[in-house]
Amino acid sequence: MTVDRLRIATVVTRFQAGAGVVALRGAQGLAARGHEVTIIAGSGDRLLDEASGMEVILEPALRSPIAPRDDVAALHRLTALFSRRSFDVVHTHSAKAGTVGRLAARRAGVPRIVHTYHGFPFHEFQSAARRWAYVAIERRMGLITDVALCVGTAVSVEAIRRGLIAPQCVRTIAVPVRADSLAPAPSRRNARRELRLPDSAPVVGAVGRLSYQKAPEHFVAAMAALHRPDVTGVWIGDGELAARVHDLARQVHPGTRIVLAGQRADVPALLPAFDVFTLPSRYEGLPVAIVEAMVCGVPVVATAVNSVPDVVRPGETGLLVPPQRPDLLATAIAHLLDRPDEAARLAGAAQAQVDHRYGLRALADALEAAYRPGPAPIDREESPCA
Q: Same CATH topology for 7-176+359-371 and 179-355?
């Protein structure tokens, strides 16, 4: 394998939202350096358009739910693809793509296997048996993984603590924010016009999939708990819980206004519409949307889960609340809405911390370092890191 120009397969289950954005930004940074990148995804959305100029292969059998027939089909097809194309590196993202993709890469004899942990498929809200099963699978996958890239410090710590992979194989990365997507700086007035919001009303916003992980029902509950008819809540994103969240939004107190804006391709340009950005997730890696909100100077209230505290430091760069406590989420939001000077202080400190660590160059550097082989071939079963 040469290190001058690599043939890289980037494999992701859903080419959308957090994991998809990190995969895309990494692929773009590598392509700009002359590497040949192929993106393989089970499904995708607007990111498919952003990937123009790179090869994208859709593999519909690669999907999130456990489906043995589809999983086996995806494994066979990816193994054949990797064997036929002779990739130097297979880099997987997300749990399903991480399992199927790494197994296929191992079967095909790919020289370098890298996985990114954006979070984990196991969490405290599962049954103990399911959680144990996921941990066991990840430990097995760790034996055939050369390097694990972890989005945020807490994700790295959890991977090491759980024994998912040898400690020397773990590297911490930050989420990438593409600076040119925020320049020139988006206008608050234009952002509100796009969302059909009045210029003067206080707005609390969230961005993410309408999924169990993101807990959008807690966002709705927090907006109702504010008891502030002057405040508008806005959620940008779509997902499997869309119908349920629409029903919940209709059922809240008539004085509570909630706007479900759906999936948007221009999220960074819409963030300045918010007076407070919030994310009530049950579990996370390190969401790109939080960092983008900070870049835009929007104060953040989030749940104290996984790697979120890497960037949201309580009382310094934002406020944190426990997950599954929409009452405390509402209290923290009200605190910032009623104290604009404090909100501005937190937002300013947060904006100042988003430096070169969150750029495409830093991510591309980290990827090239992860793809670089060690000085000698390894036996992955005995020493899974080089």
A: yes
Per-residue pLDDT of 97-139, as tens digits, reads 999 999 999 999 999 999 999 988 877 887 889 889 999 999 9
CA 300 to chain CA mean position, Å: 17
Cα first-last separation, the chain: 14
Mean pLDDT of 297-306: 94
Can you give the residue ranges of every domain in the chain?
A: 7-176+359-371, 179-355
What CATH number belongs to 179-355? Answer: 3.40.50.2000
Place of tokens 């750029």: 359
Residue type, 34: G
Task: State pTM to two decimals.
Answer: 0.79
* Count of beta carbons in the 10 Å neighbourhood of residue 80: 13
The average confidence (pLDDT) of the chain is 89
Q: What is the DSSP string of 44-96?
A: ESTHHHHTTTSEEEE-TT--SS--HHHHHHHHHHHHHHHHHHT-SEEEEESHH
The CATH code belonging to domain 7-176+359-371 is 3.40.50.2000
| CA–CA distance, 144 with 32 (Å, rounded to integer) | 29
144-192 residue pLDDT tens: 999 999 998 989 999 999 999 999 999 999 888 765 545 556 789 999 9
CA–CA distance, 259 with 323 (Å, rounded to integer)? 22
What single-letter amino acid sits at 123? H
CA triplet 149, 17, 9: central angle to 5 degrees? 50
